[in-house]
Amino acid sequence: MQDILQVVRAPDPELDDVVRRELLIQSGDAARFSNLLGFGLLGTVDAIMLLSQGQTTGLVVWSLLCLAWLLIFQFFVPALVTGPARALEVGHSPARIARRFALGQCVTGAAWGSGCVFLRPVEAAPELIAVPITALVLANAANLLFCAATPGAYRLFHASIVLTGGLGLALQQNWGLVALVVFGAGGAPPLARYGYQQVAGARLLARQNSLLVGELRQEREAVEQMNLRLAEANAELRHQATRDPLTGLPNRALFSDHLASTLARSRRAGRTLGVIYFDLDKFKAVNDTLGHGAGDDLLCQVGHRVTAVLRSSDVLARLGGDEFVVITAAGEALAERIRRVLEEPFGLAGRTVRISASLGLALDDGRLGTEELVEFADVALYRAKELGRNRVVVFGPALLDGAGRRASHRPETQSPIAPNVSHWSMSPLE
């Protein structure tokens, strides 16, 4: 067994153990098959010797001895000899199984070789002595072919045949056949070595390759799992990079991307896009009186309420603090709905709290950039606060002075939609 491990070397100690177990399993299965062939070989030898009308006493003794051991080997010691896979499952060590297997092979060789001790040449046909010799050769060949993966056990089988067969031939003074047996004893081990190198080597190499394939498959599955976890982690990082951690709404970066793409689509479709910029009136008072936890809760509730009145195409984002912004094509109507829904009382820290919101609306005129649109909505929001809060102001150029700064004390007109919506003068900039 050590020889074959040198021929087909496993890449690591764990695989060495697997190869040893595989050697025992292969050799045990092969020995059982070889043992089955022994029944047919024994019957053939008996038939030839009986037809020769030679003495039957020795033939009967030899046949019973071989038959008994064939049965024992095949049926009564499967866990120790012919079934190493089962023996390994119940906890027998590979070394113990190998010793039992070698012992079984040794007894088998002695049983076959004893044919030359019990069988005598037939006087009428002395050439029939070749029959037991042929039986020994065939038995040896069968073991060589089927048990080549464990050369130690095969050598014991071969040595037992040589010793018992040579002894029987020497008792018959067939010195020529003794010389032939001795010569065969020297030539069989190299032949066995070559046989198990070729037969068992190919088997173990295929087994080792299958083990390596299994390991590669496991590594590939591990890599796929790692890639999946990395993809999930990247998705989570992208989510964290583009979402407000408190409300889960888009943050400023994601809002800018949405605004740029939505503005381009709206202009291609000939629709007017608006940006609503709003914050909460007296939000600082909520933090100061109820605590920052209540303030965070209020921001989350505002996000839920405003989201509930948006259309599927609208986008709500939190820019920071209590500042929110909406991308919409609904314009004044949506701004007024947001103002009204935020007038409804909130439940915070076990108390009922009423707040309001100031909103600025800027509408795209086909020439504004995204930053200008947001800035103008912020200018309108600033004016809404100047006018007393809790109102909507629609941006117009009159909100800016000639230098592009916020103007004040300009006339305004009330919107026909609601008294809290003001259209600032749309006169051109000076």
Describe the protein in words:
This protein is of the alpha+beta class and 430 residues long. The protein folds into two domains: 2-219; 252-424, 2-Layer Sandwich (Alpha-Beta Plaits), CATH 3.30.70. Helices cover 65% and strands 10% of the residues. It has a seven-stranded mixed sheet with strand order 2-3-1-6-7-9-8, with helices on both faces. The longest helix has 68 residues, at 175-242. The radius of gyration is 49 Å and the shape is rod-shaped.
- Tally the helices: what do you get? 15
Bulk shape: rod-shaped
Give a quick account of the main beta sheet: strands, pairing sense, barrel closure: 7 strands, mixed
Rounded Rg: 49 Å
Helix content: 55-70%
Q: How are the SSEs ordered, and which strands pair?
A:
Blueprint: H1 2-7, H2 13-51, H3 57-76, H4 78-82, H5 84-89, H6 94-113, H7 115-118, H8 130-146, H9 151-171, H10 175-242, H11 252-269, E1 274-280, H12 283-290, H13 292-309, E2 315-320, E3 323-328, H14 332-343, E4 346-348, E5 351-353, E6 357-363, H15 370-386, E7 392-394, E8 412-414, E9 421-424
Helix pairs in contact: 2-3, 2-6, 2-8, 2-10, 3-6, 6-9, 8-9, 9-10, 12-13, 13-14
